[in-house]
Structure formats: C-alpha cells, structure tokens
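Weekly modeling sync, notes
Attendees: S.R. (lead), two postdocs, one rotation student

Agenda item 3: backlog of single-chain predictions. S.R. asked that every request posted to the team notebook include the full sequence so nobody has to chase files. The rotation student volunteered to paste the first one in as an example of the format we agreed on. Action items at the bottom.

Example entry:
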Amino acid sequence: MSISRYKLHLMIWIAAALLQFAAPTVAEAQNRNRETIDSLRWGYEYNSAEAYRRANQAQHLD
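Predicted structure, as returned to the notebook:
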C-alpha cells in the first residue's frame, strides 16, 4: 500500500498545524510561570500582612 504524495503532504501539514496549537510557545510558558509566581507572591505578602495586623491587634487588646 502506497500513500500518495498529496495524502502524505496533507498528513504532515495537519500534524504541523495540530502541534502548533497544542504545544505552548516559550513566551506563553514564561507568562504562565510568571503569573503563578506573582499569585504565590501576592498570597505570601497578604498572609504576612494579615499576621502582622493580627499581632498588632492582639497587642492592643492586652
């Protein structure tokens, strides 16, 4: 069984198109990593500020 050049070309083109949509680019991966790091950093800073506020509130209640 032989695949015609047309079918082979079409299959390669479709595979390349699917890879282009499925695989994230380097810039997309960097942006996703940056968003994750920023969200973790925001959560840490928020929790630190909350702990500081609670400590000050506890001192005033003593």
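Discussion: group reviewed the output briefly. The chain has a mean pLDDT of 82.
Action items: rotation student to repeat for the remaining queue; S.R. to check formatting next week.
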